Structures are given as structure tokens and as C-alpha cells.
Amino acid sequence: MIKKAMLSMAAGSMLFFVPVFAPVLAQAQAADAAPYQVSEGNKVDAHTLSGWRTWRALACERCHGPAQEGMVGPSLVNSLKVLSKDQFKETVLKGRIDKGMPNFDGSKMVVENIDNLYAYLKGRSDGAIQPGRLQEIGK
Amino acid sequence: MSFQSRTTCWGTCLALLAGTAFAADSDVAQLTKDPKNWAMQAGDLNNHRYSELKQITTKNAKNLSVAWTFSTGVLRGHEGGPLVIGDTMYLHSPFPNKVFAIALEDQSIRWKYEPKQDATVIPVMCCDTVNRGLAYANGKIFLQQADTTLVALDAKTGNELWKVKVGDPKIGETTTNTPHIFKDKVLTGISGGEFGVRGRITAHDINTGKVLWKAYSTGPDNELLVDPAKTMTWTDGKMAPIGPDSSLKTWQGDQWKLGGGTTWGWYSYDPALNVVYYGTGNPSTWNPRQRPGDNKWSMTIFARDLDTGMAKWVYQMTPHDEWDYDGVNEMILADIKVKGKPHKALVHFDRNGFAYTMDRVSGELLVAEKYDPVVNWATHVDMKSGRPQVVAKYSTDKNGPDVNTKGVCPSALGTKDQQPASYSPRTGLFYVPTNHVCMDYEPFQIEYTAGQPYVGSTLSMYAAPNSHGGMGNFIAWDAGTGKMVWSKPERFSVWSGALTTAGDVVFYGTLEGYLKAVDLNGKELWKFKTPSGIIGNVTTWEYKGKQYVGVLSGIGGWAGIGLAAGLTKGTEGLGAVGGYKDLAKYTELGGVLTVFALSDR
């Protein structure tokens, strides 16, 4: 794998973040521990990996884009800077039907992995996790 | 009927009597013979998208200017186009699928219809809410709503005459296709190939909506409407019966029940043979390992008897699809010389990058050639077996789940998606809007949940490498020899239906929003930037002695966005996103019909 500094993607405002080769803390919530562990930008803890797998299985990129920066649906890189965890869960499980966001409370995978999905997307939003394929730390 | 301005027709004219439904026929075929009208989405039964009008020529096309505009009041992808019958235009919008009857005299709205649809259908259509337009026959307008309701309206008043549901959005079924009126029947399909839908086509009574027959793409013979002894397919260099359980034998277990093979394209009809032609979409899931076998009859050209629905012949273009190369693109019926011999041909530009010329009477395979030289997933189609010869390196099944198969051309968008091509009987050539996009494709194991996406693959797409850098071409094609005549590069995919005319002008739209007129050599004569990117189809009609050209603009759909997805590394595969971001420099959402005519000088 190429070890690269963070991409400056459309979301912007992540240029000052440089991944290091150890679990890192999210900048945005210095007071709280980040809900994810990441190393080298693409190696994450098992929970966060399940979050990514959930993202992939439900084809979320069809609306939010492969790098979560938005297409027909909004940029989650931006949304996760604003939404609380509870608001996030509410949105994913209940949907925003009129805007085209499905309710995923009928998906066993999403219901079981909602915290993991949050962890993954928070990591993307913080600029700590790279877009694309992930693997488990130490595997 | 309110056709105050009907003048003489070309050929024989049926008297248009309100409420008269001839048992054996509707008036639409006749209406398409008068080039003043644009009475079907494709202009005629053959999917030609050609008009005999010739007021606009290669000499004066440079003088085209905007005659009038009309906003649908809806954003998102505007596919399809307006119908014109006599002095009235009928126009649709994407979801919520508004319908407008517009007086050509002063562009006033005669009536407007807006169906009440449950908004929960929107996410199922994710990510766009396109509709490919209305149909007309016997004083009725037919709309295939997103929520699978097929509705007939009184063309004079907009009042509902009948409604029938052809699917269930709760299990991922939606509809985006235009209804097709052939003889005395309305034919419609189903969308939802990414939700594990089982594709089928239904024929309805034009007067009541009653289902007359229903033919599935996958499953047991009686539900396929095939005769194991009489339905033929290209086998070992000749036509032979398909035999019993032709579909069931090519699926593992019950996977055919979620098998895809949806039917959202443009159908055609040959009245002399009484046969309807259409194509079926991808098998589901997109992870080929989860469905061993050829997955018949997904990715297939069907030729069916219009009255009974029974299949006369079938031909599967992409057995065991591993790339999402839906076979739904239009079947164009043209009587042309193929390899020097006259044939009643069917010409089809498939998503898989091969252009097929079939004998539409017998179903024989005549020509199958790449219509973009970058196509690489197969070396060629073996003309004896009719099977594409897959290149191992690009086999996402062979490489397996959780392996990223890179550099496959074309991408899942296909060398052409549904954006329909045009055939000019004057040149005998086909004018084709194409994509010039390649992809990386990574399948993974996926479980089925009704109503949830059932895809099982992540993709990233990018402009074809080592080429002109653009994501599209507009080409001229000789279907008799399987050779490209010329190719005009475009910055983005050409996602607009083409139009040819007796004035020898060829029209198409671009994703930046240009409507372009080119001559028969592809030389640009004129262009005009409409309010938004064009994924609609160009149409033409005549009113009070003037030829008009119209096109819907309104960017959306897969075009320019692509189903771009998971990257292997943060630095890779941003092509489609990059492409889309690039597109954002040129255009924004919209929903406007722009109508052009020669300026009075």
C-alpha cells in the first residue's frame, strides 16, 4: 500500500490532519475518545471494519458517493460534523423518506451494526479513515 | 378529440373518432406515419428516432434559435421526451410524474395531471427518479408511474380512465420505462435489478388495463411463455429449440426468484410479423459467485408474439454476467443489407460493448462487433456458439469476491446505456450516443432482504485510459458490416437519445447541456447550451408549417455520476467522482423543455 498523507477531498478542512501509524483520536471531539481506531488510514478495529462492510452491503455509495462526499444524497463527511450520534441513528433507521433517504430499520445488518456504521463514517468525516477498502489492524 | 389543425396525412389517414377503439388496432401506428407528429417516444414502431421533416437542413441548422421553453417544475434526471399529436404536446416529468397537455398555439397548459404517489418509492428508485415518457393512442395518454401504477388518461381532459398496478415497491419494484402501444395492447416492464426483482413484461388491454399476458425473464417454462420445442435460439451455428427448463437449468437453487432480468428499455414491434422485441437486464446479484450458471434469460433479446406473448426466439448476449451489462437497450428494426445480403434485421447496441445485428424473423446471429475499440472484457463473440469469449483477467467471477478486478472496459454504464440510438434510412447507418468509461469491479457476498439494495459489488469508474480523455463518443455505425464509420469524441458520456432527419441533420444532447446538430460526417453545425445537462431524447415535429426540435434538459440519473464506488486506495478510482465533479463545473440540476426552430429571417 502506498503510504500517503490525507487526500484533500471535496470536503476540505482535513488538510491539517496527518495520519500516524497508531490508533489516533478524532480532532473534532478532543474531549471524547473517538469511536474508531485507525492506523495508516486504512487499517481499523473490527467494529469499524464491520461498519464499513455495512456501508458497502447496503450500497450507500449509490447516493452518498464512494468517498461519502455526496452525490444525489448529502456529503456524510460534512453531515457527521454536525449530526449527533443519536441524530445519525434516527436518520439511518427512520430515514428521510421525502428526501429519498430510506429507512434502514428493516435491515438486520444495519440495526446490528448501527454503532459500527457511525464509527466508520465518523472516521471518514474526521479525515482519519481513508475512502475505499479497509482491513483490520494487525491482520 | 381536439385536433383542430389536422391537415393532410402522409399515406392514408384514419378518421379520428373519439372513443373508437378498433379491436385489432389503435391509431398510433398511423399517427407515426405523419411526420408532423411525434406520436411515440421513439417516433415509430421500429425505434428509428428518424423524421421525414426536412425544413431544417445542414445548410440552415446554424440558424436554429429558441422558439419557446417550458419548465416542468421538477429537478432531477429528465429522460424521454415530449409527444406531439396535432396541435397538442404531451410532456411528463420525473417523480412525481406530472403530465402536461400543452397547446402548441400559445403554449398554454390545457390540463395537468399529478398522480398521488407514496414518497417511499423515491429511496427504492435510488438514486434517481427518471421516467422515460408517455405513450398515446386512441385519445388516451398512458403514464407508467414510478410506483408501478400504469394509468390511462383522457387526452382531452386529463381525467383518469383506468389504473393498474404492475409491481410492488415494498420489494424493490419500481417502473421507469415508457408504456409501449402496439396494435391494441399496452406493454410495460419493471425496474429493480439492484433489489432482487424478478423481471417480466406485461401486456394490457388498451381500454381497461386488464392483463392479457405476463412473461417472466427467469423461471419455469410456463412463466417464461416459451415453448421448449418451438422457441428457438442460436445454437452451434444454427437456430435450434431451447428445450425444457432452459432457464431453471442455468440457476442454482431458487436464485432465479431473485434473478433480475428486468425490462426497463425501449421495445419495438414489427406489424408484418406481429412480433415485439425487447431486452432483459442484469442477473442479480452483481456478485457472480452467488449465481453459478448462465442465468437465463437475463441479458437476452426476446422476440415474442404480440397476441399470445409466446417467445419465438431468444438470444442471450452476456451469459453469466459479471459486470452488470444489462441487455435492455433498444432493439432497432431495419431492413438493411448485412454482409451484402438483404435482411429484415434487428440492430442492438448492447451495454457489453458489442453491437449485434440479428435476423429478426429467424433470430439468427449475423454480426457482433465491438463499437468502441477499448472494449476488453471479451476478445470477440464466437459466431458459432454466439458466446462472448471472456478474457480471464477481467472475469470478476474467476478473480472472485473481495478481489478488485481492474481496468474492465466498458464500465457497468456500458458502451451505451438506455440512451437510444437513431437510424437514418437515407444513409442506412446508425447514429449512436456512447460512453467511453472503464471500471474497477469488486464483488462481495451479500444477503437478500426484501426492499433493500441487493447489489454485492463496489465499482469505480473513470474515462477510458490511453484515449482522448473524455468519457463519451458520438458515433456512426454500419450494422451490415459491423464497422464504425466515424467517432466524435465528447468530454462526458453522451446520455441523450439521438435524432436523424430527412434534412440530413443529426441531433444529440450532452451532459454539459448542449443540444448539438451535426452533419452526416459528424461535423458540428450548431450547438446551444440548455439550462441543465441533457439526458433526454431529441424529438422533432411540425406545427403550422414550421419544423420544431425539442429536448428536455435536467441532469441526473446514472449519467455523469456513475455508480462509482469503493476504492482500493484513497488515491484511486476517483475518475467517476472526478468526472462528476468536473460536470458540476458546467451544469446544475434543472427541468426544462427547450424548443428550437429556424429563426424567421
Automatic annotation (TrEMBL), chain A:
Coiled coil: none annotated. Keywords: Heme, Iron, Metal-binding, Signal. It comes from the Bacteria. SUPFAM superfamilies: Cytochrome c. GO terms for molecular function: electron transfer activity; heme binding; metal ion binding. Pfam families: Cytochrome_CBB3. Residues 46-125 form the Cytochrome c domain. It comes from Massilia forsythiae. Gene3D superfamilies: Cytochrome c-like domain (1.10.760.10). Residues 1-22 form the signal peptide. This is Methanol dehydrogenase. InterPro entries: Cyt_c-like_dom (IPR009056), Cyt_c-like_dom_sf (IPR036909).
Automatic annotation (TrEMBL), chain B:
Disulfide bonds join 126-127. The active site is at 324 (proton acceptor). SUPFAM superfamilies: Quinoprotein alcohol dehydrogenase-like. It holds the Pfam family PQQ_2. One of its GO terms (molecular function) is calcium ion binding. Ca(2+) binds at residues 194, 282, 324. GO terms for cellular component: membrane; outer membrane-bounded periplasmic space. Pyrroloquinoline quinone binds at residues 79, 132, 176, 262. Binds 1 Ca(2+) ion per subunit. Binds 1 PQQ group per subunit. Residues 38-373, 469-535 form the Pyrrolo-quinoline quinone repeat domain. InterPro entries: PQQ_b-propeller_rpt, PQQ_MeOH/EtOH_DH, PQQ_rpt_dom, Quinoprotein_ADH-like_sf, Quinoprotein_DH_CS. Its cofactor is Ca(2+); pyrroloquinoline quinone. Residues 1-23 form the signal peptide. Keywords: Calcium, Disulfide bond, Metal-binding, Oxidoreductase, PQQ, Signal. Belongs to the bacterial PQQ dehydrogenase family. PANTHER family: QUINOPROTEIN ALCOHOL DEHYDROGENASE (CYTOCHROME C), QUINOPROTEIN GLUCOSE DEHYDROGENASE. This is Methanol/ethanol family PQQ-dependent dehydrogenase. It comes from Massilia forsythiae. The lineage of its organism: Bacteria, Pseudomonadati, Pseudomonadota, Betaproteobacteria, Burkholderiales.
